[in-house]
Each structure stands twice: as C-alpha cells, then as structure tokens.
Amino acid sequence: MTEADLRRAHAVHPVAALQEQWSLANRDFERRLLPTAAELGIPVVAHSPNGHGLLHRNGEAAEPGIEDTRAALDEIAEEHGTTAGQVALAWVHHRERVHGVPVVPLPGTTSVSHLHMNTAAAELSLSGEELRRLDAPPRPGDFARNRRPGDNDRPSRFTTHDIRREG
C-alpha cells in the first residue's frame, strides 16, 4: 500500500484501521505510511510486533544489527523482571504516545501462557531513556529475515483495485 492508496481509500470511505507489520525489527511503516495514517486519524493494527519471533528467540543466526537490539531488550527486560518479547511488545504499545495515533499490537501466540504474557506487556511502562535505547539500534526495514515474501510491497489489506477504478 502506498500513501496515495490510503488517501484514495479514505476519501471513498473512512478507513476504520490500517493493519501493517510494525516492530523494532521492521519500522519501515513509520516512514512510509504512519504519517498519513496519523494525519487522517486512522488507528493502526501492528501485526508481528515481535518480528515473527525474531526479537525474543535466542540462539538464531545473527542478523546484522539484531545483536544490539536484542541486548537492549534483554537488559530492559531484566530491569523490569519481564521477557524481551514483552519489552518489544511494550515498545509497540508506546508508539501510540510517540506518534499520536491509536495502536493495537496483534502478536501471534501458541499458548495460553504466551497470551497472558502478551496481555501483561500492555501494562509495562517504559521510561524515556529505555525507549531511546530501543530506538538507538539500526533502523530497519533492516532485518531481512523478519520479512516474509511480499511484506510491505503487496497492494493492501483491502481492495485498492476498486478504489483506483472509482478515483
């Protein structure tokens, strides 16, 4: 989806929410579409807020720059007595405050215990310094394995074909 697609869609009918991949491992959305979504008052559903698990799995082959991000996540998690995954999810929750647009993270889960951990992350309050530490590592779209084929380059979650025909 492009900024123009979002504007055309919103002109036809107010867009209730925009779902895009958004995490510490993939922040391309912040540069591409978030300013337009915020301007139009469109809430964001952030799918894969843990980077398809990349931000909380240990022992995987290193991605360029991921070591710094994981180290920051681990250190902050230890300070709060939580997991790195919960900190990564809390970072996404905090983006609402940073960008002034409602954000609903949509993490996947494989168990009820993970569901409880994901829910608890919404209550985790990160300090300004902690947020700066998490923002400091390399700015992605950046960790290539975090992307699935077609992420962020497919047309959209709704049909823009009809919008283009009308607009």
UniProtKB/TrEMBL annotation:
GO cellular-component term (any): cytoplasm
The record's GO molecular-function terms, alphabetically, read: oxidoreductase activity
The protein's UniProt keywords, in alphabetical order, are: Oxidoreductase
Segments of this protein annotated with the region Disordered: 128-167
Q: Which residues form the NADP-dependent oxidoreductase domain?
A: 6-136
Biased-composition ranges, Basic and acidic residues, are: 129-167
Alphabetical list of Gene3D superfamilies matching this protein: NADP-dependent oxidoreductase domain (3.20.20.100)
UniProt keyword annotation of Oxidoreductase present: yes
Q: Which domain of life is it from?
A: Bacteria
Concerning PANTHER family, the annotation shows:
AFLATOXIN B1 ALDEHYDE REDUCTASE, ALDO-KETO REDUCTASE
Q: What is this protein called?
A: Aldo/keto reductase family protein
Q: Which organism is it from?
A: Actinopolyspora righensis
